[in-house]
Amino acid sequence: MVERLNDLDKKLIAQLYHDARKPLTEIAKNLHLSREQVSYRINKFEKEGIIRGYVPLVNYSKFGYSKLTIIFLKFRNLKFMNELKKKVVNDGNRISYGELLAKYDLFIVAVFKNEADRNEYILRMLEENEGISDYSIIEPYYLENYPLKFFGYNEKSHLIKDYSGKPIKLDEKEKLILSILSKNATAKVIDIAIKAKMSAELVVYKIKRLKKEGLWIGARAYIDSEKMNYSYTILLLNGQLPASTRELLKKFAEKSPNIESLAFMINNPSCYIQLFHKENSELTNTLKKLREILNENIEITIIPLKNEGEDLNPLPFL
Question: What are the pLDDT digits (tens) for 215-225?
Fold first, then answer.
């Protein structure tokens, strides 16, 4: 655990979590600090491990990957889980994985081109890993993100972008730029140019093109919640949710200081909620308020996360 964060620290982390490529001068202006003070704080967060890196946010469907899937896995014992973690490190579909502390042992976030691609992946995983005793699949059709509201940032983003056209074609230079940004989404243009062996002007042009085509949505800081003494918890709602209830849940999620993301699925679980909280009382209060919205037939499964994710690879198919 690191020393207590003050309000300015929290607001800075929230801004980096929402838009890590925002110019330091703009962040400094928003926080009424000097550019040097902002730079000092960011370097401090990186050295302390509060900020573990910077990852890109992209529209996967424009790359030809229309299925964003979260796979929850339960193992006969943890030896099998550790074996699987080693296997998926270089997986061409896996974005991240992380350990869970109840009901399931591991989650894997992955992207697929289509349903057949996803089914083949899961069947192969089950056939090759006899230690898996249970699993569940979540595929949101609606996913809203509310990044660190109680850290002083109130903007939201709709993470699933509708796109039914053909995948956007990328040339080798664009793929190389994206590969570099996938390892550090805040890499400076000049550093990208050196690594990619192209001019800075061409790098700027290519990044503008990626944004214009809607492939690149933005970048965010990847934070270590444990070092700030915060926890993540997933809530899974099982049962049919009428349209009126879904609207109430959207309004509640937007106002709740602890809800970081909300997703709806066609099948059970019908809703996925992720919380970012410091005290157990915050989780309890959220559950109480949810019960006021939901009817008695909706079952809530509580799954604490050991971490938000390990070994992120936001563009595994490149």
Answer: 998 899 998 88
| Domain final residue pick, 212, 227, 245 | 212
Sign of CA dihedral 236, 237, 243, 245: negative
Beta-carbon contacts of residue 123 (< 8 Å; ≥ 6 apart): none
Residue 238 lies in a domain: no
Q: Where do runs of H (alpha helix) occur along the chain? A: 7-18, 24-31, 35-48, 78-87, 115-128, 172-183, 189-196, 200-212, 243-255, 280-293
- Residue 38 belongs to a domain with what CATH number? 1.10.10.10
Please say if the pLDDT value at position 1 is more than 60. Answer: no
The pLDDT-based confidence of 147 (bands split at 50, 70, 90) is confident
Question: How far is the C-alpha of 197 from the C-alpha of 180, rounded, in Å?
Answer: 12
Number of structural domains found in the chain: 2
Could you say which DSSP state residue 228 is in? Answer: G
Q: Of 140, 156, 142, 141, which is closest to residue 255 (Cα–Cα)?
A: 156
Residue 114 forms part of a structural domain: no
Does the residue 194 lie in any domain?
yes
Dig out the tokens for 91 from the structure.
């997986």
Whether the full predicted model's pTM is greater than 0.70, yes or no, is: yes
Of 150, 179, 212, the one marking the end of a domain is: 212
Average pLDDT on 161-178 reads: 87
Report the percent of the chain where pLDDT is more than 90.
Answer: 78
pLDDT digits (tens, 9 = 90+) for 28-48: 999 999 999 999 999 999 999
Residue pair 271/248 in contact by the 8 Å Cβ criterion: no
In a domain, 57, yes or no: no
Residue numbers of the domain that contains 196: 169-212
HEC profile for 128-185?
Answer: HCCCEEEEEEECCCEEEECCCHHHCCCCCEECCCCCCCCCCCCCHHHHHHHHHHHHCC
Tokens describing residue 285: 């209060």
